[in-house]
Design goal:
Layout: H1 2-6, H2 9-26, H3 36-39, E1 57-65, E2 78-79, E3 89-90, E4 95-102, E5 109-115, H4 122-135, E6 141-148, E7 154-155, H5 172-191, E8 194-204, E9 209-211, E10 221-229, E11 236-241, E12 254-255, H6 259-271, E13 275-280, E14 287-289, H7 292-295, H8 299-318, E15 324-326, E16 330-340, H9 344-351, E17 359-361, E18 367-378, E19 383-387, E20 391-392, H10 395-398, E21 426-430, E22 439-440, E23 458-459, E24 465-466, H11 477-492
Parallel strand pairs: 3-12, 5-6, 11-13, 19-21, 20-22
Antiparallel strand pairs: 1-4, 1-8, 2-7, 4-5, 8-10, 8-15, 9-14, 10-11, 16-18, 17-18, 18-19, 23-24
């Protein structure tokens, strides 16, 4: 290997890959690229400044089944692990679940919607927003936020899990129907709104999670928002928990929402019918279910474990006994941003039309992904919510970065972590929100394969595997997102 490095062969291979990509990009029409302004027509920006003058909570919930009826007749690829893995049956349905929240301050309502899928692009989310907004059925709406639950056993909504790496795994008819049904769920949530009280409670998920990449750092807290309607009808639970929804393992052949479906079942049984929405958190780097290694290649065991794990999470949710009342106030602000994409593999599949994320090109021919970040507060600075467009490494939230001597690049992490930006008593992350741009990794621990960067993963000198980098935009993504969030929060003060 030393002689190969002496001959600069790794550099030569990298230059060849870069040259081939540049040649492909030369023939890409300018119409492929867009701008922040062009992509933000239906991105509602929220509140210019924050106010705490709400009068009462009005909340609505609705859901729509997304699973197609012809799942066994048509070819639908399962997303999350392997390409060319068509679904064979349905274990439980994919849903779009929407919640409408309004503090009756007159400044407008906010939508939070979760889709049972591995991830969904901002371009597709803007299509859903367009349907909702142009329907005219929700007046005075100030923000629509759509996130993925990140189940690894749902129909491909990104395109990366088709017949092979270079073929689009999305089904066009399914995607169009998903957008319509998700918009229907959002509109129905508004129409189902009721007055009531909103409560915050938390509990720790002891022994449920594992972190597969150092630093061992994850948020074990399960946060529960519970809306209690004044008319005595069913409560609505919004559950935030940071965990990859992959209990079925890599050999899955069934469509499923994974453990959130069985978490919901437990909550519904204990409450006699509550509405339940699962919202994922900071899961990058990689936060997953404790027994993943046991079920990863054992689908039969996964079929048992997904129900067991979901029930365990549901029991923790229902054990919460420390609720506090959330004052009627909701504030949110959203900002569109551009993040330079260094990942040649992702750029290739985007140019080939597998991915459909919005991209821009600057005068130096650098290509960026156009995405967005949002910051929301509930109550009088009681809850702060960071909405992140991908899979955030937990240390970017907590600040518990690897020291220089333990990091892959032997440098310190130079960031203002989300926890240092906090203005509220309780803070949480909504991951894969309003986009999916992949893993978001601290730059000091970002390591690429010497020969085939982004096309192959590598190990560092301590034997630590750096898989997540192959599914990231590049080493600068974390800094760009944290800086954008910090500026966004500063703008509301």
């Amino acid at each position: 290997m030393k002689i190969l490095r002496f001959l600069r062969l790794p550099n030569l291979v990298r230059r060849i890959i870069s040259g081939l990509l540049s040649l492909i990009l030369f023939f890409v029409p300018n119409s492929t690229y867009t701008s922040i302004d062009e992509t933000s027509e239906y991105m509602l920006t929220g509140d210019e400044t924050f106010s705490y003058s709400g009068k009462k909570w009005t909340v609505g919930f609705a859901k729509e089944v997304l699973t197609p009826d012809d799942i066994t007749e048509e070819k639908y690829y399962i997303a999350g692990y392997n390409t060319n893995n068509p679904a064979q049956s349905v274990l439980d349905d994919m849903y779009a679940k929407a919640v409408y929240l309004d503090d009756n301050s007159g400044r407008g309502g906010v939508v939070i919607c979760a889709i049972d899928c591995v991830g969904i692009s901002r371009k597709d989310i803007n299509d859903i927003r367009k349907i909702v907004i142009e329907s005219g059925k929700i007046p005075n709406l100030k923000s629509i936020n759509i996130c993925a639950t990140h189940t690894h056993s749902a129909i491909d909504t990104q395109g990366l899990w088709g017949k092979n790496f270079l073929s689009d795994g999305k089904n066009e008819d399914f995607m169009n129907e998903l957008k319509v049904r998700t918009a229907d769920a959002i509109i129905s949530a508004y129409e189902a709104r009721k007055d009531g009280k909103l409560y915050l409670g938390t509990a720790e998920s002891e022994g449920l999670l594992t972190d597969t990449r150092t630093p061992i750092d994850y948020d074990a807290t399960i946060t529960r928002l519970r809306f209690d309607p004044a008319d005595g009808s069913n409560d609505t639970y919004i559950v935030n928990f940071a965990c990859h929804a992959e209990c079925l393992g890599a050999r899955t052949t069934v469509v499923s929402a994974d453990f959130p479906a069985y978490m919901e079942k437990e909550i519904v049984e204990q409450t006699d019918g509550a509405n339940v929405v699962f919202i994922n958190g900071a899961i990058g780097g990689l936060i997953t279910c404790e027994k993943l290694d046991d079920v990863l290649r054992n689908f039969e065991l996964g079929l048992e474990y997904v129900k067991e794990f979901g029930k365990d999470v549901g029991e923790v949710v229902m054990s919460i006994d420390n609720e506090t009342v959330i004052a009627p106030a909701i504030n949110i602000k959203t900002k569109a941003i551009e993040i330079k994409c260094d990942n040649t593999a992702l750029l290739l599949v985007r140019i080939l039309g597998v991915l459909n994320n919005d991209i821009s090109k600057d005068k130096d021919k650098n290509i960026s992904i156009i995405t967005e970040v949002s910051y929301m507060e509930l109550g009088t600075r009681q809850i702060g919510v960071y909405m992140i467009p991908g899979e955030l490494s937990p240390e970017l939230e907590s600040g518990n970065f690897l020291p220089a001597e333990d990091s892959a690049n032997k440098t310190e992490a130079d960031y203002t972590a989300l926890s240092e930006m906090a203005r509220c008593e309780h803070n949480l992350v909504i991951g894969l929100c309003n986009d999916e741009i992949g893993y978001i990794i601290p730059e000091n621990d970002f390591l690429l394969h010497e020969w085939l960067p982004y096309f192959n993963n590598t190990d560092d000198e301590n034997g630590r595997r750096h898989y997540e980098e192959t599914n990231s935009l590049g080493p600068k993504a974390a800094g760009a997102i944290l800086e954008a969030m910090e500026n966004l929060i500063a703008s509301v003060e």
